[in-house]
Amino acid sequence: MTASDTVLVVQDGGLLQITLNRPDRLNAFTPDMHLALRAALEQAASSEVRAVLLTGAGRGFCAGQDLGGRDPRQGERRDLGETIGTFYNPLIRQLRGLAKPVICAVNGVAAGAGASVALACDIVLAAQSARFIQAFSKLGLVPDAGGSWSLPRLVGEARAKALALTAEPIDAETAAAWGLIWKALPDDALMTEATALARRLAEGPTLGLGLTKQAIQAAATQDMDAQLDLEQRLQRQAGYSDDYAEGVTAFLDKRPPAFKGR
Ligand code: T3D
Known about the structure:
Blueprint: E1 7-12, E2 15-20, H1 31-44, E3 51-56, E4 60-62, H2 80-97, E5 102-106, E6 109-111, H3 113-119, E7 123-127, E8 131-133, H4 147-155, H5 157-166, E9 170-171, H6 172-178, E10 183-185, H7 190-202, H8 206-219, H9 224-239, H10 242-253
Parallel strand pairs: 2-3, 3-5, 4-6, 5-7, 6-8, 7-10
Antiparallel strand pairs: 1-2, 8-9
Helix pairs in contact: 1-2, 4-5, 8-9
Ligand T3D binds next to helix 2 and strand 6.
């Protein structure tokens, strides 16, 4: 397998599908895979792409860091902060900073940083057979790739601590009931529904959707006063967009809008 085979990228109109592709390792991350994923997300930032669908090949979504390269018997202890700084932090910043919706279809187990990556996406759907595991504590590590930030925000401190300290898996239905993800779907419906949702968003008012993502993310770290000012700035920008003009015109003409994404 070449480096680029570790991540499959298919662009169909405005939709970019990215598939993590090391199924025999449950799509665990290697440096090559990180670089290929980074390149795919850079492609997603290009103007023609209007939504991203992220999923995994085979029976897993992603088992986090590939532990094959972490055998302590093979050499010196290593600086894990370096991997975090070189790969995981830039990846999470890329996902959160992309001004387009990122849909994650969690097709199977999401463990360690694999779970954190899923939670950094904008809308997370999961197959009913999928599990989410904060596997870090089994290794003596701490949640990374934004997990310690997103977990308490999504499910509250009590559940976040219990999940992270025990590494107990939760199934997709529980994840949805707790607000960790958007929806659990029957396994055989996951990709059809996730693709339909991603296509719908790829035909949406991309500029406005990107600004909406920015506003909701900003709400996690600022007070309401600052948020009101941000909404005013973003609405001003959205109000000048071609898609806003199209949306209102279509409403008045009683027809569906044909958004261009700008
Ligand atoms: O730089 C740094 O290291 C810091 C960054 C850290 C971030 C992290 O993500 S740390 C957390 C790393 N991930 C884990 O601890 C999860 C390890 N995997 C598991 O606990 C289990 O595999 C799962 C619970 C995810 C799934 O269990 P199960 O029973 O469904 O599958 P399995 O049989 O364990 O795995 C299937 C194969 O995938 C197996 O290989 P084999 O025996 O068929 O040759 C297994 O070794 C391999 N695999 C699974 N996870 C990883 C992996 N190989 C390498 N790295 C993995 N993370």
